[in-house]
């Protein structure tokens, strides 16, 4: 093979790779609400510049290898194989990286970030996605298409090297210089926008995968340009100073047993006589909270708010420092026998390091293999068995986390309530709008199965005459959306739609009369309520950020991995708290639709005192 032919093949290959990368980045455009011509021009420029950023290093590496490898004039096979191998491997990695980010962004509206890295590296993280075998097969096929495509292009270019357009080195260099100049201008505009709060440009930049997030605060300050954007905010970082031990309590001769049951992604409208008859019956005998909300739209923050009664930003410091909640410390200090079960994992999310920190491993049971509905059934079997084998002279604490209602929503065929469910849930092929009703039917069937397991446990307690000696709570860690607001699932970016945060709460407290609570309540109030019932006399605000469930919540505070939300019933104000995104407020109306900029600014101004109060509370338990 003549030496001149190889650079020609590689030059054409990288030109085509650039076009492919540009086209893939352009797929993200449909997810931006940018409307102004200037912002759209900025988005086009960013796409052109970043496509060059992702492909030019490969072309440069090939050019350097071509120039400096020994035997430059040697047309040997080894040299061609090496250079083609670099092109093939590099091109495949770039395309796969952007494609994976696109699939992620399409589902959840965020790019690869610290959360995704945590998901990939934490044991149980991948399993928590609930991907079906059909999804894995489709994903493997789609992933294989990229390296196969790169190989096919190289083979065709090599075979027909004498035909077609011949890009000169000068043309490529000039094009690369032009595109990198465009990228430099785009990054300057972005840095200026972060300094001055130009929302249109920032929203456009959010859709670019692996954006550099260039900043130039010191430069603009030297230039005399005043920072008009809101400054960054980092909450709840530092050494934990949390009063989780030695809460004063009234002496009680016979403390009640406590059973806490949590359904994954279990939203409020699943609680009904048809879908969940056992829970509905329990809610009629105990207390049903009709406007109850999780402290977040993710399992971490939902569980954290439930057990600690404090805000989402504390998760990171508490997890790093292995700080247990006051509720669990109280149970252990008062000699409760613990039987803690999950059909998911205690490692992902990291409940082993937070909610159940310090609990002996012998008291933790996690079932991670097999169909989720089978795991739920087995866990209830085992929880009942442990209840029967407990020491009757000591109180018992049981916990169960149901996984059936996590996508892909599993259930045994003999318990099907909705027969119109979609049979195979392949995430990679689904047209959500055409299939969402069938997906929702799966969800309802899974909830019905969970209810049957709860019913088995309640019936057993009745037969053993233990119901009047046992506190029973059922709720969801967070909700689930089925395209009501344009998305499926939960945990999407900086939004907290009603469907993702509103959950049922059923509470059976022996000795209390049945009631229906219609005022708004929050997961933040669960731990204070349980501790007060168990005899704790310390004010709830001394160890949490909430009162008991009998008090209405005027303003909901919720969070996810990077964003906090504050809801007053008319609006939700959200903002980042981890520096993972440019700081700015977003405002949504009562129907979870983003409001116009001017109205949003007015709402923020009116609620600034409330926002400042939430920020202060998010720093109270660290120093």
Automatic annotation (TrEMBL):
Residues 15-229 form the Inner membrane protein YejM N-terminal domain. Coiled coil: none annotated. This is Sulfatase-like hydrolase/transferase. The keyword Transmembrane helix applies. PANTHER family: SULFATASE, SULFATASE N-TERMINAL DOMAIN-CONTAINING PROTEIN. The lineage of its organism: Bacteria, Pseudomonadati, Pseudomonadota, Betaproteobacteria, Rhodocyclales. InterPro entries: Alkaline_phosphatase_core_sf, GAG_Ulvan_Degrading_Sulfatases, Sulfatase_N, YejM-like, YejM_N. The chain crosses the membrane at residues 12-30, 42-65, 77-100, 139-160, 172-192. Keywords: Membrane, Transmembrane, Transmembrane helix. The keyword Transmembrane helix applies. Residues 256-536 form the Sulfatase N-terminal domain. Gene3D superfamilies: Alkaline Phosphatase, subunit A.
């Amino acid at each position: 093979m003549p030496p001149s032919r190889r650079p020609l093949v590689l030059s054409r290959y990288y030109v085509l790779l650039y076009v492919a990368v540009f086209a893939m980045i352009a797929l993200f455009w449909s997810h931006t609400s940018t409307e102004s011509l200037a912002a759209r021009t900025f988005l086009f420029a960013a796409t052109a510049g970043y496509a060059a950023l992702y492909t030019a290093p490969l072309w440069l590496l090939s050019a350097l290898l071509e120039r400096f490898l020994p035997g430059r004039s040697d047309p040997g096979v080894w040299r061609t194989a090496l250079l083609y191998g670099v092109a093939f491997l590099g091109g495949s990695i770039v395309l796969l990286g952007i494609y994976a980010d696109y699939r992620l962004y399409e589902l959840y509206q965020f790019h690869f970030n610290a959360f995704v890295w945590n998901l990939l590296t934490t044991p149980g993280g991948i399993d928590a996605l609930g991907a079906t075998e059909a999804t894995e097969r489709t994903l493997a096929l789609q992933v294989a298409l990229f390296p196969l495509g790169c190989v096919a292009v190289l083979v065709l270019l090599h075979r027909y090297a004498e035909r077609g357009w011949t890009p000169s080195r000068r043309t490529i260099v000039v094009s690369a210089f032009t595109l990198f100049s465009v990228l430099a201008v785009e990054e300057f505009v972005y840095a200026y926008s972060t300094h001055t709060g130009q929302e249109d440009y920032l929203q456009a930049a959010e859709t670019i995968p692996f954006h550099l997030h260039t900043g130039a605060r010191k430069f603009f300050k030297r230039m005399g340009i005043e920072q008009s954007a809101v400054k960054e905010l980092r909450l709840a970082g530092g050494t934990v100073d949390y009063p989780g031990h030695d809460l004063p309590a009234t002496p009680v001769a016979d403390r009640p047993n406590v059973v806490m049951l949590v359904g994954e992604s279990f939203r409020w409208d699943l609680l009904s006589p048809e879908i969940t008859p056992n829970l509905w019956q329990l809610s009629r005998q105990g207390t049903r909270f009709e406007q109850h909300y999780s402290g977040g739209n993710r399992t971490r923050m939902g569980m954290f708010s439930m057990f600690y009664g404090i805000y989402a930003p504390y998760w990171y410091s508490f997890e790093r420092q292995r700080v247990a909640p006051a509720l669990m410390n109280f149970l252990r200090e008062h000699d409760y026998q613990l039987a803690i079960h999950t059909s998911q994992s205690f490692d992902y999310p990291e409940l082993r390091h937070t909610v159940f920190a310090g609990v002996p491993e012998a008291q933790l049971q996690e079932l991670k293999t097999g169909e989720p509905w089978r795991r739920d059934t087995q866990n209830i079997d085992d929880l009942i068995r442990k209840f029967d084998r407990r020491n009757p002279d000591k109180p018992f604490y049981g916990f169960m986390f149901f996984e059936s209602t996590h996508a892909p929503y599993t259930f045994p065929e003999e318990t099907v309530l909705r027969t119109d469910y979609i049979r195979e849930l392949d995430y990679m092929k689904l047209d959500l709008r055409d299939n969402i009703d069938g997906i929702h039917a799966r969800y309802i069937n899974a909830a019905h199965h969970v209810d049957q397991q709860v019913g088995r446990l309640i019936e057993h307690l009745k037969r053993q005459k233990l119901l009047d000696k046992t506190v029973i709570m059922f709720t969801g860690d967070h909700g689930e959306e089925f395209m009501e607001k344009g998305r499926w699932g939960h945990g999407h970016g900086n939004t907290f739609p009603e469907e993702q945060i509103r959950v049922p709460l059923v509470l059976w407290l022996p000795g209390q009369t049945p009631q229906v609570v219609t005022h708004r309540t929050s997961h933040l109030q669960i731990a204070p309520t349980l501790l007060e019932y168990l005899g704790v006399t310390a004010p709830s605000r001394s160890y949490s950020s909430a009162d008991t469930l009998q008090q209405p919540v005027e303003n909901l505070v919720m969070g996810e991995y990077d964003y906090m939300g504050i809801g007053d019933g008319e609006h939700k104000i959200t903002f980042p708290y981890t520096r993972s995104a440019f700081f700015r407020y977003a405002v949504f109306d009562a129907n979870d639709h983003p409001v116009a900029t001017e109205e949003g600014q007015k709402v923020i101004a009116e609620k600034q005192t409330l926002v400042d109060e939430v920020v202060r509370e998010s720093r109270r338990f660290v120093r």
